[in-house]
Amino acid sequence: MRGDYQQLVDEISAVLAAPATLEDRDFRLIAFGAHDDGTDEGTDGAAGGEGGGAGAGTGGPALDPVRTRSILHRRSTPAVRAWFEAFGIGRATGPVRIPPDPSAGVLIGRICLPVRHRGVVYGYVWLLDDGHLADLETGAGGGPPDPRIDRAMETAARIGDLLAAEARAGAELGELLRDLLTGPAVTREAARTELRARLGGAADGPLALAAVAPWALDVPDGEDGGPVPGLSALPGALAVCAVPDQGLAVLVRPRPADPAGPARAAADRLLRSPRAAGAAAGTGAPRHGLAELPRAWREALAAARAVRAEPRLGPVARWEDIGPYRMLTELPPAAGPDPAVAGLLRPEHAELARTAEVFLDCAGQAGRAAAALAIHRQTLYYRLSRVAGLTGLDLGEGEDRLLLHMALKRARL
């Protein structure tokens, strides 16, 4: 399907004799087309904030700061996005001219062709206009549009049909993935059978899951392109779904040389969404085939919980790397802390609790613990004696140390 988008964007570039860029409604690059006019100017791609990305040509008109950021970060800033959306592109049914705004770093004007299907906007085609399209009649003034504009809008409508079909297919895959991960046994079996049919050979190969938790479903759609990102927003993703009260799940195919890379990259991108405010992310251990994905989902959620407990593990943690939290996240929810440590966990004793945790993290080595805490060794011994008095535990006994250490880690969760 990517090739179909490229062909259609190339058609628009050829019809209007201008570089064209296609982006989804969240301003992420899908395809770009270069107009070959015999000069050494390349495409501008996503110049000025239309999401840009690798491959969005070089040379051509002046490189404005917004385009530079777009190429480096693959999406525009909220301020630049607001500038474009202020011209009503999300409601427009025809071409929209957008003037430059040097104060925002947008040095070159644009013509935006909204990409719609049955009244719903799915993306935008951007045409860089450095003045050569100034006489092109778009129809906005009440007069008939230039026939080239009509042809370009017809092509944009075909793009809208493709994007809508892709969105429907992605939504169906997401529903199947959600049923597989969290549904009852009968539903899981049916979902696994259908997913295998939809994904083809990929379903029986290596697979990995990433979790972003929590994931807000009540953010207005205009903030981030809808409750669940489309597959076009997550290169390499096979399916994506929101699991209520748990998080967002992304199914990806690992690379042999970097099994955790694709899942980590998808999670890292999702953490930049407004829907992931305050969220953490984790990945489960890669699996072969669909059967063990429910277990991989629990691992990914556990890794995300571990990041919230220990930010040093994140922003995206692998299940294999979260150490004792692999066991702690498997335990059922506790009604409260262990009685021995309840007093130590009161807010007024936060410094003592931190001292005990660092001491135990350092395997009971006083020198290492004192250095990590930046305190004198005698201060460490004094604090540990107070910990022993509050808890009644003997820090010279292995079992007491184990209880205290695990209780402190559990409290973080």
From TrEMBL:
Span of domain PucR C-terminal helix-turn-helix: 352-409
Domain spans labelled CdaR GGDEF-like: 236-306
Region (Disordered): 38-63
Pfam families (UniProt xref): GGDEF_2 (PF17853), HTH_30 (PF13556)
Superkingdom of this protein's organism: Bacteria
Biased composition (Gly residues): 45-60
Family label: Belongs to the CdaR family.
The protein's name: PucR family transcriptional regulator
Record lineage: Bacteria, Bacillati, Actinomycetota, Actinomycetes, Kitasatosporales
